[in-house]
Design goal:
Blueprint (H helix, E strand, L loop, with lengths): L7 E2 L19 E2 L13 E6 L2 E6 H7 L16 H13 L3 H14 L4 H10 L5 H14 L5 H16 L3 H14 L5 H16 L3 H13 L6 H20 L3 H28 L8 E2 L20 E2 L6 E2 L1 H18 L9 E4 L7 H17 L3 E4 L35 E2 L18 H13 L4 H14 L6 E5 L19 H15 L3 E6 L2 H6 L7 E3 L14 H7 L4 H17 L2 E4 L4 H14 L5 E3 L11 E4 L2 E4 L1
Parallel strand pairs: 5-7, 8-9, 8-10, 11-12, 11-14, 12-13, 14-15
Antiparallel strand pairs: 1-2, 3-4, 6-15, 16-17
Helix pairs in contact: 2-3, 3-4, 4-5, 4-6, 5-6, 6-7, 6-8, 7-8, 8-9, 8-10, 9-10, 10-11, 11-12, 11-15, 12-14, 13-14, 14-20, 15-19, 19-20
């Protein structure tokens, strides 16, 4: 039904031949025209109302639109649509909304099928005319190509309106059209995904909202503040719901995930300020050395075993900015929303290796996959030596870490593990930062602990009184002391040698707390004699390492608990990487991994002493660097 005082601007086809009703559809836009002295009426017209086609006579129109308020033309002039549209849009931009609406209605009088005018008109309409606005959005969607910006904007804006009215199903349909047809990282697609996640949150589908926010917004638009806020909201509501349902353990995991996300938001903001030249109080910026040089001394990383700068925390501003860019590139590749089998490689990890060696293999494979822009996935049952079937049926890195990719591994052929053919390769866009920086960032992406592992490590830190302001010392004895392979250059050093360098750190950096990670109970006993230091360690029975057999051989023989070993080594590496200083050996994977993680997390190279060899990117072989053979 037509509402009272509604005035209609319309056109009459010049093909009509009589006063009979004609079976034709004519789209007319509502318009009021001021200060018009005359009303021109034609005998018969056809007007399409919101509910369908309706024919009006001269008397009908006269009753609906009083004299002086309606101006009717006998023909339309399509060439006038663009000028009218531009004037109307400009008026709206200037704040003259009513004038803008009049011009937009004039544009639609001249060309009823001009979709941009429908979208702009709908967006300018007052809230009380919401249904009319939705009608114009629908017309625009019907007229414009699905992938055009006009159709995307019409679906997006109408989806927002429908969600605000609580009409969730209708809103979903329109917003999903945007997600389907728009570029995933575009502003309109990000906005649509944000609205869809809000619908999920309002309906209590928290897991669906979290997944969408992580994969479709945080990943593709990390600076989009509403997405960050809504992810925090979804995490909070999920934790609250689990707690109200009495699921204490799951609620604790969800709460930890919320805390981690809040911390991550803070880290991203710190990174943003870093790119603008602002730094934390601990960090000191200096000139950036050449690639693969220690920051303060510019010593070659592949040649120097000691890095003890005059002041700790010296950073290169470009490091963190490049790290953020690489992290986004990795996330875009690994955590994509659309997965093609041809772009996915699933690798089976080596079964007869130590944990650090397996991690090094995995990071090497990630480097190769990233070079060729294919998604890397580790196969199920690929970490049998360090997982328990009773506690984690997948028995892969996902027992301890976040999934490496969102792509499923089913029905994909597994690839055999292979030695990195180019351990010093760095993509051209990151080459100026060097091998050490690149491999450290890849490792940082890989080492994303899942909520269960994080909760365990936080409990350990609280129990032993761990603090980041400490020296991390890794003393590996046990099977390392019996390694017959000469190329590894492994050697067992007594604790006293480590403590000599710890004393240098204490005097230079005023640090007297040590986190000691070791497999030797005798080392724990010896540590008590160093009264100048507060030495903390993770308490557990180290007698299980008294055997000189390799740990991986003991795991294969069943004399060690695989899950206990996995948790233990991950805890040690994470805590070592969290300290501000490191003393260890780079001939072993654990020392290299801990130092690389520490550098990736901090954004600079912390002071370090390796008692045997310099850092290297590969293991168990000799690789030429600057014309010299470097053993690793």
């Amino acid at each position: 039904m037509w509402r009272q005082h509604t005035c209609v601007r319309y056109w009459v086809s010049d093909a009509w031949e009589s006063t009979e009703w004609m079976n034709m559809k004519v789209l007319a836009a509502v318009a009021r025209v001021k200060d018009q002295p005359q009303i021109q009426i034609f005998p018969e017209v056809m007007v399409l109302d919101g509910d369908g086609t309706q024919l009006l006579t001269k008397e009908d129109i006269t009753d609906l639109c009083p004299a002086g308020k309606l101006f009717l033309l006998p023909v339309r002039l399509p060439q006038h649509v663009i000028p009218c549209y531009r004037v109307g849009a400009a008026a709206i931009d200037d704040g003259r909304t009513n004038d803008g609406i009049e011009w937009l209605r004039a544009a639609l009088y001249h060309q009823p099928r001009y979709a941009p005018a429908h979208v702009t008109l709908a967006g300018a309409m007052p809230a009380e005319e919401g249904e009319t606005a939705l009608y114009h959005y629908s017309v625009a969607v019907a007229l414009a190509p699905p992938r055009s910006y006009t159709a995307l904007l019409a679906n997006h804006n109408s989806g927002l309106m429908l969600r605000s009215k609580g009409r969730h199903e209708e809103a979903r349909k329109r917003l999903k059209r945007v997600v389907l047809h728009a570029e995933a990282s575009s502003e309109v697609a990000v906005g649509a995904n944000n609205e869809l996640s809000l619908i999920d949150i309002e309906e209590g589908h928290y897991d669906a909202a979290i997944t969408r926010l992580r994969q479709r917004i945080v990943l593709l638009a990390p600076t989009y503040l509403p997405g960050q806020q809504n992810l925090a909201l979804a995490l909070y509501k999920r934790a609250k719901a689990l707690r109200s349902e009495g699921q204490g353990h799951e609620a604790a995991l969800a709460t930890q995930e919320l805390k981690d996300w809040i911390s991550q938001i803070a880290d991203r903001r710190d990174l943003s300020t870093e790119s603008q030249g602002l730094h934390s109080s601990k960090e000191q910026t200096g000139p950036c050395c050449e690639p693969d040089k220690y920051m303060a001394s510019c010593d070659n990383i592949f040649e120097a075993t000691h890095y003890i700068p005059a002041s700790d925390g010296t950073s290169c501003p470009e490091w963190k900015v490049a790290a953020l860019r690489l992290r986004r590139d990795l996330e875009s590749l690994q955590l994509r929303s659309q997965c093609l089998p041809s772009a996915l490689k699933v690798f089976q990890m080596p079964s007869a290796n130590g944990f650090g060696s397996i991690v090094s293999y995995a990071v090497s494979l990630l480097a190769q996959s990233f070079e060729h822009r294919v998604v890397m996935q580790h196969a199920s049952q690929s970490l049998l030596g360090y997982t328990s079937p009773a506690k984690c049926t997948k028995r892969s890195f996902e027992c301890y870490f976040e999934p490496l990719t969102s792509c499923p591994a089913e029905n994909i052929t597994n690839h055999e593990i292979q030695v990195d053919p180019r351990p010093h390769f760095v993509p051209s866009e990151y080459k100026k930062h060097g091998v050490f920086w690149y491999r450290s960032q890849l490792l940082g992406f890989f080492w994303r602990l899942n909520a269960h592992t994080r909760i365990h490590i936080e409990a350990v830190k609280k129990k032993i009184g761990f603090t980041n302001r400490s020296i991390g010392i890794h003393v590996r004895h046990g099977d390392s002391c019996s390694d017959p392979r000469p190329y590894t250059m492994r050697k067992c050093f007594p604790l006293a040698i480590y403590m000599q360098y710890a004393e240098s750190f204490r005097q230079k950096y005023n640090i007297s707390t040590i986190f000691l990670a070791t497999d030797d109970s005798q080392v724990i006993s010896e540590s008590r004699q160093f009264s100048n230091f507060t030495i903390i360690f993770v308490p557990f029975d180290r007698s299980r390492y008294d055997s000189l057999d390799f740990i991986d051989e003991q795991l294969e023989a069943g004399t060690l608990d695989p899950e206990e070993e996995g948790v233990s080594v991950i805890t040690d590496i994470t805590l070592l990487a969290s300290t501000d200083y490191f003393i260890g050996t780079f001939s072993g994977n654990i020392g290299r991994i801990a130092y690389q993680l520490s550098s990736a997390w901090k954004g600079y190279q912390p002071p370090v002493v390796s008692l045997d060899i310099p850092w290297c990117s590969h293991w168990g072989h000799r690789w030429p660097v600057n014309g010299k053979p470097i053993a690793c």
